[in-house]
Amino acid sequence: MSIRGGKILSTAVTIIGIIISLVLVIVGLKMGVFTSPETLQMFLRGAGMWAPLIFIGIQVVQVVFPIIPGGLTCVAGVLLFGPVWGFVYNYVGICVGSGINFSLAKQYGRPFVERSVSEKVWGKYIKWLDSPKFDLYFALAIFFPVAPDDFLCLLAGLTPMKFRRFATIILLGKPLSLLVYSWGLAAVLGHVSRFLAG
User: Where are the domains positioned within the chain?
Assistant: First the structure.
């Protein structure tokens, strides 16, 4: 595939991803599925065989449109689908959403990214753009769950980083932080539920 063909495909995938995400946001807000893990689980249980696909779509949405708490969807995935498949669906959705963020930043540039976050977050991480070690900082931030990953994916899109390198960092760096985050929260919620029930 030519460079021009690759750019056209990337743009088309980004646009389709945004449209699907917007539809899911509108439907989700109307149905109230973004208010709690319990509501989300009830909604997905009614989706039958489509539940995994819908859940992955919801995960994409929460990365691209940060109106949904990421912790809510991660925990709901583990509680609803179990630790293995819950992790897989979380992982796929978050990786796809991260790729869309990176592509959006490449497509629309710094003004778009700057409008997507608070001044505080922008001011804290913008200096990374001037660092020759951006790729290293980005990889470490993705590997350890201590930074705003969704914003950093946008920030990465403002650098000369190629999509292949970005995808490699996301695919290899996300599993550990996602395991710690989603399984850890699920375990805490389980303990709290048992304590309240007892």
Answer: 3-197
